[in-house]
């Protein structure tokens, strides 16, 4: 079974139109993080429900304007998402639930 992840409780993600980065505010630690567009998309998807890396790749592929829609190689896209998840977990912005 694939690992499932959700965003940390209370996390606020804000990405302005046309910007490649997103600002993330975590009220528990009163910290702000600047993340790339893919990380912002992962956090927004994981805020709705627990998701696996493969779920995220599928959802990004379905969105015509997604930050990762240009990736034609599903394996490369999955690796990028897994690396992004690892970084978000290390920063405490995403947590593993299963």
């Amino acid at each position: 079974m694939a690992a499932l992840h959700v965003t940390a409780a209370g996390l606020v993600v804000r990405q302005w139109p046309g910007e490649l980065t997103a600002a993330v505010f975590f009220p528990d630690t009163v910290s702000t993080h600047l993340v790339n567009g893919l990380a912002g998309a992962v956090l927004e998807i994981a805020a709705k429900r627990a998701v696996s890396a493969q779920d995220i790749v599928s959802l990004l592929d379905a969105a015509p304007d997604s930050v990762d829609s240009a990736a034609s190689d599903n394996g490369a896209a999955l690796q990028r998402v897994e690396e992004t998840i690892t970084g978000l977990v290390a920063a405490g912005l995403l947590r593993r639930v299963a």
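The longest strand covers residues 21-26. The helical segments are 37-48, 53-62, 74-90.
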